[in-house]
UniProtKB/TrEMBL annotation:
Basic and acidic residues bias spans: 257-268
Name this polypeptide is given: PspA/IM30 family protein
Family: Belongs to the PspA/Vipp/IM30 family.
Pfam families linked: PspA_IM30 (PF04012)
InterPro entries: PspA_VIPP1
The keyword Coiled coil is annotated on this UniProt entry: yes
Keyword set, alphabetical order: Coiled coil
Coiled-coil ranges (or none): 40-74, 101-188
């Protein structure tokens, strides 16, 4: 194979590929119907010309027939007048007209067959054009549906890709970070003075409870030291011993309780 043939084949292959990729079914079908309609117009013109030719041939055929009949009448007239030479001339004219009429008849028959064939082809082309229009509408609708389906599938495939989903995940993380930052700013933006006063109020409440407990303990100690109501106070000689005994008696149940309290506080 020569270099020229190879280059020519490559060029034709590339051109065919370009043309195939550029073909739009909807546009190609529309152009095909337009071409068929143009062919129909040309065929109608051809049929009209054939019919006009047939009409002219038919007129010429009838004229020659009439001329042949007329020359025959004239030949008879010349014979009745005794002019044989004139009658012979009239018969020659009759013969020419008759031969011309026969030739026209043959041509007229051929033209009639051509006109019928052209009319039949024109009718067939009209039927094909009507069928082509119907198919064009159907194929155009299918092509549009196929394009729409392809676009939908492409959009779905783009949404379903890992990169798209990763983008959604990243945006979700950013939203969570923004929410956490907003909550932190809201906590930091609270009034520090209010929190300090709240702490002071809580501390003063605990101190008040502590003082109340101390007073209650002191009252219990005084009540235990005074004894029953109406009893005389003990003598001075025994007061120290009684107080010491009371302290021993009173401290004995309190010390273990305090010890347990201290252990609970240390453990907590």
């Amino acid at each position: 194979m020569g270099l020229f043939d190879r280059v020519s084949r490559v060029v034709r292959a590339n051109l065919n590929a370009v043309v195939s990729s550029a073909e739009d079914p909807e546009k190609i079908l529309e152009q095909t119907v337009i071409d068929m309609q143009e062919d129909l117009v040309q065929m109608r013109q051809a049929v009209a010309q054939a019919i006009a030719s047939q009409k002219r041939l038919e007129q010429q055929y009838r004229q020659n027939q009439q001329q042949a009949t007329e020359w025959e009448r004239r030949a008879k007239l010349a014979l009745t007048k005794g002019d044989e030479s004139l009658a012979m001339e009239a018969l020659n004219r009759k013969k020419t007209a008759a031969e011309t009429a026969m030739a026209l008849k043959t041509q007229l028959d051929q033209t009639d067959g051509q006109v019928k064939a052209l009319k039949s082809n024109m009718t067939a082309l009209e039927s094909k054009i009507a069928e082509a229009k119907t198919k064009k509408e159907m194929l155009t609708a299918r092509a549009r549906a196929a394009k729409a389906s392809e676009q939908i599938h492409q959009a779905v495939s783009k949404v379903g890709t890992s990169s798209s989903m990763a983008a959604f995940d990243r945006m979700e993380d950013k939203v969570m970070q923004l929410e956490a930052r907003s909550e932190a700013i809201a906590e930091l933006s609270t009034d520090s003075l209010e929190s300090q006063f709240a702490q002071l109020e809580a501390g003063s409440d605990v101190a008040f409870q502590l003082e109340a407990l101390k007073d209650e303990i002191e009252r219990e100690k005084i009540g235990q030291a005074s004894g029953p109501a109406g009893a005389l106070p003990p003598s001075s000689s025994t007061s120290d011993d009684s107080v010491m005994d009371a302290q021993v008696v009173d401290s004995s149940p309190i010390d273990p309780e305090l010890q347990r309290l201290r252990e609970q506080l240390e453990n907590s």
